[in-house]
Give the backbone structure.
Amino acid sequence: MADPLLSFSLLLLLSLLLSTTTTTTADDAATFLKLASALTPTPKGWSTTNSNDYCNWNGVKCDNSNNVISINLATQSLSGILPSELSTLSQLQSLSLQENKLSGALPSLANLASLREIYIGTNNFTSIPQDCFKGLTSLQTLSMNDNINLESWVISTDLTESSSLTTFEASNAKIFGTIPDMFASFPSLQNLRLSYNNLTGGLPPSFANSEIQNLWLNNQEMGLSGNIEVLSSMVQLSQVWLQKNQFTGPVPDLSMSKNLFDLQLRDNQFTGILPVSLHSLPGLLNISLSNNKLQGPVPQFGKDVIVDNSGLNNFCVDTAGVACDPQVTTLLEIAGGFGYPVTLSDSWKGNDACSGWPFVLCDSSKKTVTTVSLGKQHFGGIISPAFANLTALTTLKLNDNNLSGPIPDSLAKLSQLSLLDVSNNNLTGKIPSFATSVKLTTTPGNPFLGSGGGPGSGGAPSPGSDSNTTAPGDGPNGKGIGGKKVSPGLIAGIVVGLVIVGVIGLFLLFKINIKKKRGKSGRVKDQENGDGISALVTNDSSCCTKGYGVLSEIQSQSSGNHSGRNIFEGGNNVISIEAF
Ligand SMILES: *[C@@H]1O[C@H](CO)[C@@H](O)[C@H](O)[C@H]1NC(C)=O
Ligand SMILES: *[C@@H]1O[C@H](CO)[C@@H](O)[C@H](O)[C@H]1NC(C)=O
Ligand SMILES: *[C@@H]1O[C@H](CO)[C@@H](O)[C@H](O)[C@H]1NC(C)=O
Ligand SMILES: *[C@@H]1O[C@H](CO)[C@@H](O)[C@H](O)[C@H]1NC(C)=O
Ligand SMILES: *[C@@H]1O[C@H](CO)[C@@H](O)[C@H](O)[C@H]1NC(C)=O
Ligand SMILES: *[C@@H]1O[C@H](CO)[C@@H](O)[C@H](O)[C@H]1NC(C)=O
Ligand SMILES: *[C@@H]1O[C@H](CO)[C@@H](O)[C@H](O)[C@H]1NC(C)=O
């Protein structure tokens, strides 16, 4: 049993030894001899027989110790397979091989810690080694668009070691899988271009507060999905290409992105009403909306804006700037409470809610909505207070969804209401005082929906209701898991526990306060001396990764060079001290 393990370990050790010896003994001249022989045609001024003079070859730059720091062989119609020895050029800072016909596996570039830029786009590489981009701690630009012969590959989180990354371009490069949630590691990232791949899944949450300016994720084979809410916090955005994906949900408020000039949203499944703030974005030049499921009025942009809005959508009217019928507006607001589900966009078309819209019934004159029946639709979100604007509503069924938040007080003002069913959701808060004529059903489900117990609150079940209503006296947490009553003993135990935790907490707070008062002046002094900064950063890494939004903001004001980095790290510490 142990034998295979032992031999495996030995093999591992051996290969480790071998790889270290090759790295230490390899000399750049030998590597260049290999490289010259591998390329067809041989680059002008290069030799395949003698490489003593490699530092003077065209496109090669060395440092004073004859270590190669830069290779530029762009646009020379070169074909061939790069030798794996490329990975031994330990001082390499810049590698430009774009626009050739290089093929085969790209050699691993792992641990080339000086490498700042990699340009390998428009080639014919067939595979990317698994660890290729590991340990590239100086990397700022990775550009590898248009490598259409690559085996499908996924973006590796090894890239998170490249914390200075400003540009990552790999469009049309056979990437599949999800966009990893790693963008908190790239406080300087400005350009992310991953168009024309087969990316799926949602936008990573770590896009939030990033410094990304140009975001190109358009034309994915299967399509990225989910909502694009995170864009509203990406205030540096200037160009956003999301066309040809499967995004859903509403277009968020992008008014914080003052530099946004180009927003391509066409050919997705966006729903909802475009935020008015988008119409008035000062720098907007170019926007596409065609072929979505957008609702509400057709947006009206300034006359200098190029608008592609010719394709399908579910706008209520055809004319830009014309408002929808008030009842339609109310129903759209209600749909907005549920996050503008696609089902409602597809069912509620046109500008007359009484023209046979699904889920809706009207009075005999076909003018006024009297019933809204949206049970079992898998809707999340909240119950919109806008229901109160459907003043003739008699029946409202919202049962068996995944709704959260309160039952809006405004619903109690609906004078015609006779039936309200919200059972099997996850509502919270206190139940508004409904008239006794309302048959109210809140359970099963809604374990956190309470009566609130305030004087005159209408938490008590109405007489007409079925057995499945909230029992009086059931506080928000009155029921344990599985609906069992919590024993008084358990409650007493929890209370005693909470008191003890509270006392300990207060004591700790008190101690920390004393420490802070003593320590504060000392720390700040350390910083002025210039040392102690890095110590603080490493000691306090949790504070600093969290606060990176602030950090990158400060950095963007500086030039982004290395001295700028020190400044913002220091700046962040000032903030972290104040926060304690
Ligand atoms: C690219 O590589 C493929 C497969 O290795 C090969 O068939 C094709 O001829 C190459 N194309 C060019 C332009 O070199
Ligand atoms: C795209 O990726 C999915 C898996 O994520 C795969 O099933 C599908 O075949 C891929 N499509 C193409 C064209 O490669
Ligand atoms: C607007 O965007 C479309 C699609 O990206 C592009 O083809 C067109 O050139 C752009 N026009 C301007 C004026 O930027
Ligand atoms: C609902 O009614 C309120 C007050 O009556 C009004 O301010 C609001 O605009 C209405 N909302 C809709 C969607 O009609
Ligand atoms: C219900 O909503 C919660 C968030 O409020 C969400 O985490 C959960 O996944 C949803 N469940 C279903 C079945 O949609
Ligand atoms: C219901 O809401 C509570 C509190 O708002 C939350 O903790 C719980 O996860 C939710 N349950 C579901 C199934 O969404
Ligand atoms: C509520 O109704 C369900 C079936 O719809 C039943 O199993 C459950 O016992 C009822 N709960 C109460 C408290 O009556």
DSSP finds ten helices and 28 strands in the chain. The two ends are 55 Å apart (CA to CA). Confidence is low (pLDDT under 50) at residues 17-26, 452-485, 519-580. The CA atoms of residues 394 and 417 lie 4 Å apart.
